Amino acid sequence: MAYNKKEIEEKLKIRCTTWSYIFPSIEKKISTSNFDESIRLANEIAKIANHLNHHPDLILSYSALTIKTHTHDASGITDKDFELAEQIDHLLLT
C-alpha cells in the first residue's frame, strides 16, 4: 500500500531524516570525492537493492550520486522504499 504525502513526510522525519520527498520518489544526494567513489558506492547500493529485490534509480556524476526510489507497482512510496533507504543509510555509516 502506498503512503500519502503527509504519511511519507512523517516517516521520513522518523526513519530516514536525510532523505527528501520529491514526487514521485524519496531521494538522497550523496557527495563523493571522485567518480570512482561514486561508482563504488553505486555498486554497493546495487547489492542491497538486489538483496531486497527493490531497485532505485541511480544518477551518477563525477562527485555525487543521487538515489531515487519509489514502488512502481504501487504507484507511490511504500515500506519497500523506506527499508531500502534505511539500508543505504546504514551502508553510508560503515
The Rg value, from CA coordinates, equals 13 Å
Q: Compute the number of structural domains.
A: 1
Low-confidence stretches: none
Strand order of the largest sheet: 1-2-4-3
CATH architecture designation: 2-Layer Sandwich
Strand content: 15-25%
CATH superfamily: Transcriptional coactivator/pterin dehydratase
From the spread of the alpha carbons, the general shape counts as globular
CATH class bucket: Alpha Beta
Summarize model confidence as the mean pLDDT: 97
N-to-C terminal Cα separation, in Å?
A: 31 Å
Question: Which tags fit this structure?
Answer:
single chain; alpha+beta; Gyrase A, domain 2; globular
Overview of the structural elements:
- The chain has 94 residues and is of the alpha+beta class.
- The protein has one domain (5-93): Gyrase A, domain 2 (2-Layer Sandwich), CATH 3.30.1360.20.
- 47% of the residues lie in helices and 22% in strands.
- It is built from three helices and four strands; from the N terminus they run H-E-E-H-E-E-H.
- A four-stranded antiparallel β-sheet has the order 1-2-4-3.
- Helix 2 crosses helix 3 (79-93).
- The mean pLDDT is 97.
